[in-house]
Amino acid sequence: MTDAARADREPGHPAALANQVEGYLLWQARVAEAEERARAFTEPLHWLTGAQREEIEQHYVRDCLVRARADLQRVADRCRALRGEYEERYRHLRARCVACAVAGIAVAVAAALLLTATVAHR
């Protein structure tokens, strides 16, 4: 994980604060959407009393938010898994690049030594 990614998680860091505010605003938008959908669901049910309508709307909102939280948790879990996979791939790629660079330098040094040895024998 990069230093910037670690810093984003530290409390008080501006990026962490921005992430928290963004998360809060997104969740509030989800709550507002659930409330609007609940009202739209109960609107054609004219036979409901006010208390019944309110109870159904509350249940509908609660159900939507439970589902939304579960969806977000699945997405977050998948993001963490992908981050781990990509970090592992990056480590392997970096090791291969370093190995190739070291091998290339070794070949160049060996070629230079052979060339100087050949030139010195003439």
Give structural notes.
It contains three helices and no strands. It is an all-alpha fold and 122 residues long. The longest helix is centred in the C-terminal third of the chain and has 71 residues. 1% of the residues are buried. The mean pLDDT is 91.
Quick rundown:
The chain is mainly α and about 120 residues long. The chain has helices at about 5-10, 15-40, 50-120.
Ends distance: 55 Å
Order of helices and strands: HHH
On the 0-100 scale, what is the average pLDDT? 91
Structural class: mainly alpha
Low-confidence residue ranges: none
Amount of beta strand: under 5%
Keywords, please?
transmembrane helix; mainly alpha
Detail the topology: elements first, then pairings:
Layout: H1 3-9, H2 14-42, H3 50-120
